[in-house]
Each structure stands twice: as C-alpha cells, then as structure tokens.
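input
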Amino acid sequence: MNKAKKVVLAYSGGLDTSVIIQWLIEKYGCEVIAFVADLGQSEDLKAIKEKALKTGASKAIVEDVREEFVRDYIFPALKANAVYEGVYLMGTSLARPLIAKKQVEAARSEGADAVSHGATGKGNDQVRFEFTYMALEPGLRIIAPWREWEFGSRSELIEYAKKHGIDVPVTKEKPYSCDANLFHISYEGGVLEDPWTAYPEDMFVLTISPEAAPDEPLHLEIDFEKGVPVGINGRRLSPASLLSELNKIGGAYGIGRVDVVENRYIGIKSRGVYETPGGTILHIAHRAVESITMDREVMHLRDSLIPRYAELVYYGYWFSPEMRMLQSAIDTSQENVTGTARLKLYKGTCTIAGRRSSVSLYRPEIATFEKGAAFNPKDAEGFIKINALRLKMQAGRK
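output
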C-alpha cells in the first residue's frame, strides 16, 4: 500500500477527528494538516486549532466560511423549500460539501496528496465528503479511518484518547455526538439510539423548552428578494448575520426542535434530534411570500421537485450535473418571490400573521365573496363542463 505523504483532515476537535490525527501519523507516517471550517458553530476555534497542533498536526488551518455557507448553500436550498422526508432541514447535509470543497482547496495550496474525514462507515457523511472530493479533485487519495481502523465503537475511541492523552468532550455518561453550525445542531448516538426513549431536556443548546418560552407572543417581519431573505423588521442584514439573529430570536421561543428517524442513503434507519430555530422561521416565511407571488403551475411543478432536490442534498450530490440543472430551475421559479412575511412566534410555534408584496398575484377585487367582484361566477359553468367531459365519458362506458 502506497503511503500518503501529506493529508488534509476535516477537523472539528471532537472525539473522532482528534483520534484520527494520532492514528494517521501512526498508520501512515504522514504529515497531517487539520482543516477547520468556521461554520458558525460557536466554539473556541483558536483552542481547537491549538488542540490540533498539540495532538500532532503539522499545521492547522481555520477558515471563516459563514457567509459563503449561508449564501451559497443554505439559501439556495431554502429557495427550493428543501426538507428531507418532510421533517429534516439538512443542516449537516448542506455543510459537508462546503467543508469538503475547502479541504480540496487546502490540499491544492498545501501540496497534499490525500484528504481524510471522520465520518463513520455507517453514515451519510462519508458519502457527502467523498462525492465532493471526487467531483472536484478526483486525483486525491481518500483516507476514511472508520472503514480501516481496528476500533469498533466510540467507547473504544475514548479509551484510545485517554491512552494517548487526548482531551475529548465526549464521555461514557454522555456519549451522543453533536454537529453544530449556523443552521442547526444535531444530536445522534448514545442514549438517543433507542427511538422510544425521550431526548434529555438538558441536551439542547440553541433553544429553550417551549414550555419555558415567554407567555407573550412575538411578531416579526422578514423581507425577501427573489426568494432570498434579506432583512428582519426592515433592517437589511448579511446572510450569516440574518440567520444568526433569527437563531437567537427563535431559540428564545423554543422554535425548531425535531425528533426524526430518517432513512440514511446506505439503507440504515437512524434517529437524530435537531435544533434549527432560524431555519424553521425562514421556511415558514418563505412559503408565505411564495403564496402570493408564485404562479400556481410554477409552484406545483417546483413542489413536485422538492423530494428529489432534498434527496440530492441529503445523499451528497451537491456538485452533480443534475443538481446544477435542478438549481437553475429552482432559481427561475423564484424570480418574483419578493415581499414581506409577518410571523407570530409563541411557545414553540411559528405561524403566518400576514404577507405582502409589490408583485403580488393576489387580487382582492377578484378573490372577494362580496357582490360586484371582478370575477363572473357564470364563467365557471363552461370550465366545469369541459373539464368534466372525460369523467362523464368514463361513467358512460360503465
């Protein structure tokens, strides 16, 4: 087996990737460069960088990709109303291709011949990382420790870490793993692997319990331009700043918790608990503006594409030709989705309280039930007869 000389590792500072640095050095005798993407995970990235160097990395790169993450990954998916299996807003799924893309760029600039990640051999992330590597730089060697090493569980990793003096945040008493970024926090494994067991309340970071939320509702307005959120309550914000503020607002009202048993790409069912306060608010607001600005047939056609779009994101095909084609169609559908949604937040719920747009297709003079409406009800008679003709013919055949 050819030895790798220099490896760029997607590093988080957590249990898996901390162990991987030491394991790569032992196994391959290679130089390890730790790459850390600042996705808004609200962690001490300076400490994580120092930890990577202390654990054995020859270099640690920290790159702020928050604006790019929200602008080029989260917002395009928002325009598609992408939700996997009707529940999951895919915070992890959207982050992985960006991290992998930045790894590839780091490998080019550092002259590395390999890339590595800490995704398990049972999960989706291994696919997302490696599809991106292959799509962007197919000549790079890929090292996936979870498919190679002797460890069979995170409990064994904890013992290995203790043996080598590696400090890790996971304990046997609290063994679930977390993935955090500006869009969400996910929780998997450990006590959550029993789908009948309720999640522990003290687990959450972004949201308070809906029961503990304020007794008075909060109203806010979100402005959209061509399907993209651009402001809150009339104040224009950058993509990352807007989402960050909505996370704080939504979290204070217990918005965005979901408990999911999802179908992984490789065929395993997995339970995940997610917090996505800002993303939940944006999805509801986006639908509100779409409801008065999108043509019916365009909306229905776009809605028919949502499951496929969500699958492509979830499965890791962000940089595929079919994704480029689909995103182009989605972007076209959003050309007139400009306006404002007013929302009401109250104890874990987010509901629409109003919507308006300068390019609205909603016409009160046509929609009204009052006398003198611009629509003539008699016109519906011919419409019904023509569209029912085939139904009458079917009945005649019987």
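quick obs: The CA atoms of residues 212 and 347 lie 8 Å apart.
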